[in-house]
TrEMBL record:
Cellular component, GO, one term: membrane
Coiled-coil intervals: none
Protein name: EXPERA domain-containing protein
Keywords: Membrane, Transmembrane, Transmembrane helix
Residue ranges annotated for the EXPERA domain, each copy included: 14-149
PROSITE patterns in the record: EXPERA (PS51751)
Superkingdom as given in the UniProt entry: Eukaryota
Topological relation to the membrane, as annotated: Multi-pass membrane protein
InterPro entries: EXPERA
Subcellular locations according to the entry: Membrane
Chain segments annotated as transmembrane: 17-37, 58-79, 85-109
């Protein structure tokens, strides 16, 4: 009896290993490019390991612990027209608005080691906030006097 695994199963295992390696490094590369382009003080602070942005690291963990599963449960609940999903979606909305407001306030009024150009600030506001152009111009007008050295 031949107990040696077939070459196709070896190839499949190797391909899965390569795909996992590629996926991990693709995510890491996207984060590095994002931080380089945006000069994002929140992400740089979270990756620095200091306690200054501990709150932001918790928000990132909160994304995976609460927001991501709730997003998928919400899709399924809405698809099935299940009324019991609405309290969870209400909690999702409250948490999302609170975390978004916290990030926007820190970006606009927090003290950061990195100096943001107006273009980077608008990019970060669009990353963390709404896609309303009028909102950006109002936030930009309010925040620019605060950002001047």
């Amino acid at each position: 009896m031949n107990t040696k695994p077939s070459s196709s199963s070896n190839r499949l295992a190797r391909d899965r290993l390569y795909m996992g390696f590629l996926a991990m490094h693709a995510v890491a590369t996207v984060v590095i490019v994002y931080i380089t382009i945006s000069n994002d003080p929140l992400m740089m602070g979270a990756s620095s390991g200091t306690s200054n942005h501990l709150w932001f690291r918790w928000l990132l963990a909160h994304e995976f612990i609460f927001f991501l599963p709730t997003y998928f449960f919400g899709i399924v609940g809405l698809w099935k027209d299940d009324l019991t999903i609405y309290p969870l979606l209400l909690a999702y909305g409250a948490a999302a608005s609170t975390t978004t407001a916290t990030c926007l306030i820190d970006l606009l009024f927090g003290s950061h080691d990195s100096h943001l150009t107006p273009k980077q600030l608008l990019f970060l506001l669009s990353s963390y906030g709404s896609s309303d152009e009028n909102l950006y111009s109002r936030l930009y007008a309010v925040s620019m006097p605060c950002l001047q050295p």
